[in-house]
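Re-run with default settings, no changes from the original entry. Doing this only to confirm the output is reproducible before filing.
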Amino acid sequence: MNNKFLIRDKESLYTLNLVPGHSVYGEKLVKFNEVEYRFWNPYRSKLASLLMLKNIDFQWKKDEIVLYLGASTGTTVSHISDLIPQGQIYAIEFSKEPFIKLLGLAKSRKNIFPILADAEKIENYFSLVPKVDLIYQDIAQPNQVDILIKNSQTYLGNKGEVIFMAKLMSIDSSKNPSEIAKKVEESLDKTFIIKDKVSLEKYEKDHYAFYLSLK
């Protein structure tokens, strides 16, 4: 994904700041050709780490509709917000404390729609979320693959894509990470076409990123 909304050099990523003059989590603001961008820290965002490790050309539209499962305080959400200025991000978060920060972020970024809900209970936000172009999941639960499948089969539109950040030790801390990753891949393969898989070890220990679409 290389356009005016995302620029990169050998060691850094930057997104075009949707709200000029404002940083979200203390990230550096820089100007390129008099236009303000936000430094996208790969140690703070798994999506940034994925893009630093592999230049996957995500064909996102500026009006992309995204379902984000496990939004937390909105670090990565905010950068996706930069990338799809005319889009919509339905940001699901279960914990109240990070959700309050997410609400604050949404006040200045009108393409973010925070929803306080459990991603396991998809019926609780069925009336709020339309069919989406992209599902992004970053959840630390043992049944995270099942959660992904359930949401994808319910909310993903035709030709939709999925980015799944697998937290291996949250699935089973008693086994070797490579063994868990293999089982995750086998489980995903029953429902999804696996377009790519990337170890995030350089930035995030015991994490894999999977780029998927429904079969």
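The longest strand covers residues 156-167. The domain at 42-214 is CATH 3.40.50.150 (Rossmann fold).
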